[in-house]
Amino acid sequence: MDKEILDIVNNIDIDESEFEHIDVELNDIEKRRIRNKYRKSVKKKNYFVKKIVMVSGLVCITVIGGFMVTPTRASNIPILGKVYEGLGVYDEYEEYRKYVGESIQVKGGKYTLEELMITPYKSLMAIRITSDKPILESEMEFMVDANIGGISWDRGTTKSYRIDDYNIVEVIEQSYDKKIPQKALVKINIHQMETLEKPSFIEQGKFHLKADFGNSYNDFESIDISNLVMKNLLLEFSKINASVMGTDITGTIKIKDESNNYSLDEISEKYSKLQLLLEVDNNFFSAPLNTSWSKIGKSINGSIKVKIPNLKYEEIKKAKDIKLSVYENKYTSLENLSVYESDNAINNLNSKNEQKDNIKEINGVKYKETIEFSDGHKGVFSNLNINNNTISISYKGNKEDIHYLTNLTLEVLNEQSELYSHFKIYPQVFKDSNKEDEFFIKFKNIPQDKNLEIFTGFGEEWNNKKLLEVYEVK
């Protein structure tokens, strides 16, 4: 690791006596991670939708990221800057990330745990995989089994980057149902996946380290919302947990299936239509319900987690007013795709919004100027400005367009593959207090010298929503 990189991160300084209370006999828990991907093709662009059903302690890593340099060998790579930038892990974490730099030399290569950041219910780690021989595309699959303080994660996502023929970086984010201890023993196992036809050539590696997670752990706010219950949906909310890595809304669903009429797929489909809208001091955020299910006898139990990555600890802590609204989408994501493919009116609507003369570009940022919706009304974007690494843009339409706006993302176009990269920035959406149909949108911490586009959520122009409930949280 270059000295300039070491100068901008903090080494972990551990007093071993502080960890005498930790039980090092940890339970090994493995569950298979399921990642269903399906491609939605709109005009000439391909948009990927990842549906992560459940992860518990085991993550399958497949490298699908962009290429940072031409194929060559790089033994000392400034990972913490360019790679994190390419993956969307940005400077907002600089004061919280802990440089580890611990390497394990194994037969066939080396694993390096570059960084680790922990909050009470989330973790973020970066692992570099270095091979003694070039890694073919068909060999880019690794499994990571991690345990922090005896607790395994239940959901996880990865962002991957190929540095060169010999080096891969994985940035892995997990969430946990149980609270992680602030001082904990961290166990991470990593190995290359193999088959009879494709044996592994890098041996398994194991990291064992003790850590005190510091500010990233302490900057945390939790709001109890267990009094919020939707009886008709058997849904009980639990908590709003806010940290430096974003905000999660959790809850449970308990169903008695006395006649054994329901399959887990049917139940999952029903609840996948639900969408939450969180209003924090006139700032709006939305996200769909992510659910996981189990069935024991006649009892069906579900856990929900709504992830809002762009709403951080400080905003929740300082908030004076918080409202939680529950909506129901007309279509599920799969139904949305079917409607697009089978309904000519919807297809024509999408084509109209995608027309070349409707795409504007200002200072390297593309966006659709006018958006037409299935009910006939239109929304118009205007006044795009870039200042201090922040993009701001105005919007005028209908008050219901708040759902459309909160589902916007700012993305970096990967010119080599003509697909959108991993990088995404989610917006902050403000409503004009005097005009219910006018909004102001901000994207913060934007990358420099990149081709950017404000991407609209697929199907939001026709997937109408029905308000089910509004709760006063604070």
UniProtKB/TrEMBL annotation:
Query: Membrane-spanning residues where?
Result: 47-69
UniProt entry keywords in alphabetical sequence: Membrane, Transmembrane, Transmembrane helix
Outline the extent of the DUF4179 domain: 43-129
State what protein this is by name: DUF4179 domain-containing protein
Q: Which domain of life is it from?
A: Bacteria
Q: Which InterPro entries match?
A: DUF4179
Which organism was this protein described from? Clostridium tarantellae
